[in-house]
Automatic annotation (TrEMBL):
<keyword id="KW-0804">Transcription</keyword>
<dbReference type="GO" id="GO:0005524">
    <property type="term" value="F:ATP binding"/>
</dbReference>
<dbReference type="InterPro" id="IPR058031">
    <property type="entry name" value="AAA_lid_NorR"/>
</dbReference>
<dbReference type="Pfam" id="PF01590">
    <property type="entry name" value="GAF"/>
</dbReference>
<protein>
    <submittedName>
        <fullName>Transcriptional regulator with GAF, ATPase, and Fis domain</fullName>
    </submittedName>
</protein>
<dbReference type="InterPro" id="IPR002078">
    <property type="entry name" value="Sigma_54_int"/>
</dbReference>
<feature type="domain" description="Sigma-54 factor interaction">
    <location>
        <begin position="180"/>
        <end position="409"/>
    </location>
</feature>
<dbReference type="GO" id="GO:0006355">
    <property type="term" value="P:regulation of DNA-templated transcription"/>
</dbReference>
<dbReference type="Pfam" id="PF25601">
    <property type="entry name" value="AAA_lid_14"/>
</dbReference>
<dbReference type="InterPro" id="IPR003593">
    <property type="entry name" value="AAA+_ATPase"/>
</dbReference>
<keyword id="KW-0547">Nucleotide-binding</keyword>
<dbReference type="GO" id="GO:0043565">
    <property type="term" value="F:sequence-specific DNA binding"/>
</dbReference>
<keyword id="KW-0238">DNA-binding</keyword>
<dbReference type="Pfam" id="PF02954">
    <property type="entry name" value="HTH_8"/>
</dbReference>
<keyword id="KW-0067">ATP-binding</keyword>
<keyword id="KW-0805">Transcription regulation</keyword>
<dbReference type="InterPro" id="IPR025943">
    <property type="entry name" value="Sigma_54_int_dom_ATP-bd_2"/>
</dbReference>
Length: 501
C-alpha cells in the first residue's frame, strides 16, 4: 500500500526522491527504505540510519511536526552546529545525491509518531503550501498503512511467541516418565476413576500427599480425554508469589500494575480448548478464589487492567495435598469453590499404603537412570530392596525416585549400591515407641532431621529437599510455615531463619 501511495503521490507532486523512515530496532535512529529515486546516484542507500538529532527527518520524528526547507543550504549551519557527526555525514550524502529541498513528514498514529515520510527534490523550493498540505494528508494514510503492518507483524510475533510458550508449558508437564508404574489395588482404584472421569468434561480434584504422582494422574486424565490434542497447561499455585498469581492465571494488560511492561497471556487463555492443571490449589488466596470460581462457572474472565471479557473453554483439574475440608471449616477456602472443584475427587494413595508397588518402581527408576548415566546396573541386593520396601517414604514416589538416582550415581558396577543407612533413622520400625505427636510436629521433626543430615543445605543434589523428595520451593515454604530456624550449635553462632541455599 505504501508503494502505491508513493507512486500516486509522485504523480500529483513534483518529487525526485521519496523514502519511508522507521525507528531502527536497535533504537539508534531512523532506518531508510527508499520508495522512489529513479535517478539514484548511490549516496543514499536502503538501510542507512538517520540520527534523531541533527537531521530534518529526525526533527520531524521527535517533534511530530512537518519540517520543510526550500533550500538545504539554509540549514547547513544548523546541522554543522548540532554536534552530531553522523548528522553531518548524512546531510552531505543528501547533498551528494543532488537533493536540495524538500520535507520530512511525521507519521502520526494513535500511539504517537511511528516514523517519517520524506519527499525531496533536486531543485530548490520543492513544494508550495497546497502541496505540503496534500503531502501531510498522504502521510496520514501512510501512517495508517504502516501502523497496520506493524500491528500485523506484532501479531505474528506474539503468535509465534505464544506457540513457543505453549510448547514450553506442555514440555513442563510432560513428566519424565510417560507411564504410571504400579499395580497395587490402591493405585488401581485411583486409575479406574481416571478412566471414568477422563472422557467427561468435569472438573476433577486430585488429592494426595506430596510426590504421590498427582501430576501424572492429571496428565493421564488429559491424555485419555477428547482434549488430548490440545494444550495441557500447568500452574503450581504455591510456587508463584501471591501478588503475581492473579496475572499468571488471567493475564494482564500492559501497565496494569507497576512492572507490567508488556501484555501477558494468562494460563486460562493458554489452556483454551485444553486442560488447565492447577497444582496446590489450596494455596490460592481467598480473594482470588472468587475469580477462579467465576471462570469455573461461567468460563469467562478479564485480564488484569482490562474490561474486555474473554470467553474460554477450559477443563480444570486441580490438585492439593492439603485438607480442603478442614480449610473450608476454617474459612480459608471457599465452600462453593470446594464443591465446584470436588465434582469428582480422586485420592492418590501414599507410597506407604501401596508398598507392593515399591519393587516395580525401584526397577523402573533404576532402568531409567542407568540408561541416562550410561551404566549397566542390573542387580539389586535383596537387603537393599527390603530396606526400600520397609522405609516409609514421606516424600513418596518423588523421594524414592531421587533416592534411586543418587544410588545409581554411587554405583560403580552392575550392582546397585544404595545408601540405605540414610533411610534407617526414618524407617518405620524406628521410633515406633515414641509417643504420638501432632502431624505438624512429626513433619517438623522429619524436616529437621533431613536438614541436619544435609548440613542445612536445602537445594541442590545433596540438599534436604532432594532427600525428602520435595521440590525446593515446597520445602522452603514448609520451613517458613513451621517456623524452622537454624539452631546456634549448627550454624556456628549464627542464628536466624534458614537460607534456602
Ligand atoms: N506411579 C508412578 N509411576 C512412575 N513414576 C511416578 C509415579 N508416581 C509418581 N511418579 C514420579 O514421581 C515424581 C513426582 O510425581 P508428581 O509430580 O506427579 O507428584 P505430585 O503428587 O504432583 O507432587 P506435588 O504434590 O509435590 O506436586 C514424578 O517424577 C513422577 O514422574
Amino acid at each position: 500500500m505504501v508503494e502505491t501511495l508513493s507512486t500516486d503521490l509522485l504523480r500529483v507532486t513534483r518529487c525526485d526522491y521519496c523514502a519511508l523512515l522507521l525507528p531502527d530496532a536497535d533504537g539508534g535512529g531512523l532506518r531508510v527504505t527508499t520508495l522512489y529515486n529513479p535517478e539514484a546516484r548511490g549516496s543514499l542507500s536502503d538501510g542507512t540510519i538517520i540520527p534523531n538529532d541533527g537531521s530534518i527527518c529526525g526533527t520531524a520524528f521527535r517533534t511530530g511536526k512537518t519540517q520543510y526547507f526550500e533550500n538545504f543550504e539554509d540549514v547547513r549551519y544548523e546541522v554543522e552546529r548540532s554536534g552530531s557527526s553522523l548528522g553531518r555525514r548524512i546531510f552531505q550524502r543528501v547533498i551528494d545525491e543532488g537533493l536540495v529541498s524538500g520535507c520530512g513528514l511525521p507519521l502520526l498514529s494513535r500511539n504517537g509518531v511511528i516514523g517519517v515520510l520524506t519527499a525531496l527534490n533536486r531543485s530548490e523550493k520543492a513544494f508550495d503550501v497546497d502541496e505540503i498540505t496534500f503531502l501531510e494528508q498522504v502521510a496520514r494514510q501512510v501512517a495508517i498503512a504502516v501502523e497496520n503492518a506493524l500491528d500485523y507483524e506484532k501479531a505474528i510475533r506474539d503468535r509465534d511467541k505464544e506457540t513457543k510458550q505453549r510448547l514450553y508449558l506442555e514440555e513442563e508437564i510432560r513428566a519424565e516418565f510417560g507411564e504410571i508404574v504400579g499395580d497395587s489395588p490402591a493405585l488401581k482404584t485411583a486409575l479406574d476413576l481416571v478412566s471414568i472421569v477422563a472422557p467427561t468434561d468435569s472438573s476433577t480434584l486430585i488429592l494426595g500427599e506430596t510426590g504421590t504422582g498427582k501430576e501424572l494422574i492429571a496428565r493421564a486424565i488429559h491424555n485419555l480425554s477428547s482434549r488430548r490434542e490440545r494444550p495441557f497447561v500447568k500452574l503450581n499455585c504455591a510456587a508463584i508469589p501471591l501478588g503475581l498469581l492473579e496475572s499468571e492465571l488471567f493475564g494482564h494488560e500492559r501497565g496494569a500494575f507497576t512492572g507490567a511492561i508488556a501484555q501477558k497471556t494468562g494460563r486460562f487463555e493458554l489452556a483454551n480448548k485444553g486442560t488447565l492443571f492447577l497444582d496446590e490449589v489450596g494455596d490460592i488466596p481467598l480473594e482470588l478464589q472468587a475469580k477462579l470460581l467465576r471462570v469455573l462457572q461461567e468460563q469467562e474472565f478479564e485480564r488484569l487492567g482490562s474490561n474486555y471479557t474473554h470467553k474460554v473453554d477450559v477443563r480444570v483439574i486441580a490438585a492439593t495435598h492439603r485438607d480442603l475440608t478442614a480449610m473450608v471449616k476454617q474459612t480459608t477456602f471457599r465452600e462453593d469453590l470446594y464443591y465446584r472443584l470436588k465434582v469428582f475427587p480422586i485420592h492418590v494413595p501414599a507410597l506407604r499404603q501401596r508398598t507392593e508397588d515399591i519393587p516395580n518402581l525401584v526397577r523402573h527408576f533404576l532402568k531409567h537412570y542407568s540408561k541416562r548415566m550410561n551404566k549397566q546396573i542390573d542387580q539389586i541386593p535383596s537387603e537393599t530392596m527390603d530396606a526400600l520396601v520397609r522405609y516409609r517414604w514421606p516424600g513418596n514416589v518423588r523421594e524414592l525416585q531421587n533416592f534411586i538416582e543418587r544410588a545409581v550415581i554411587l554405583s560403580p558396577h552392575t550392582v546397585l549400591r544404595a545408601p540405605t543407612a540414610e533411610l534407617e533413622p526414618f524407617s518405620a520400625h524406628k521410633g515406633s515407641n515414641a509417643p504420638l505427636t501432632g502431624l505438624e510436629e512429626v513433619e517438623r521433626d522429619h524436616i529437621l532431621r533431613a536438614l541436619d543430615a544435609s548440613n542445612w543445605v536445602v537445594g541442590g543434589r545433596s540438599g534436604a529437599a532432594e532427600r525428602l523428595g520435595m521440590k525446593r520451593t515446597s520445602l522452603v515454604y514448609k520451613i517458613q510455615k513451621l517456623g524452622i530456624s537454624r539452631p546456634v550449635s549448627f550454624s556456628k553462632g549464627i542464628e536466624g531463619p534458614l537460607q534456602p541455599e
